[in-house]
Amino acid sequence: MTDCLLIVDDSPSMLMGVSIALHPTGLDIEEADSAEKALQVIDAGLKPRMILTDLNMGGMSGIDLVKAVRKLPGMGFTPVVLLTTESQDDMRQMANAAGATGWLVKPFDPDKLVALVKKLVP
Hints:
Layout: E1 4-8, H1 12-21, E2 28-32, H2 35-43, E3 50-53, H3 62-70, E4 80-84, H4 89-98, E5 102-105, H5 110-120
Parallel strand pairs: 1-2, 1-3, 3-4, 4-5
InterPro entries: Bact_response_regulator, CheY-like_superfamily, Sig_transdc_resp-reg_receiver
Keywords: Phosphoprotein
Pfam family, one: Response_reg
């Protein structure tokens, strides 16, 4: 299977925008519109090189997703970055404690996002 990146967001427009922004990375882009669906596709065999997730979604939050991913075999060191409108330090600390690799605030700069992905997924 080719290298892929999993984007998790409950906003269809955000999924599309992030997917378009990440096209220059050369990675296959997989999308999930909820944390629960992300876990389903991972359980079904998807092994993403990186996960970009929203924080606030219906059902499981992005932080809950990070915690769940970190418990999965082979996913302990997969980069997981939260891409969110939240900017409070306490939320960042919660994400960091859960095992998140990084944090980007929306709206994002596409060039910075691509640079981050290329840094985390060489």
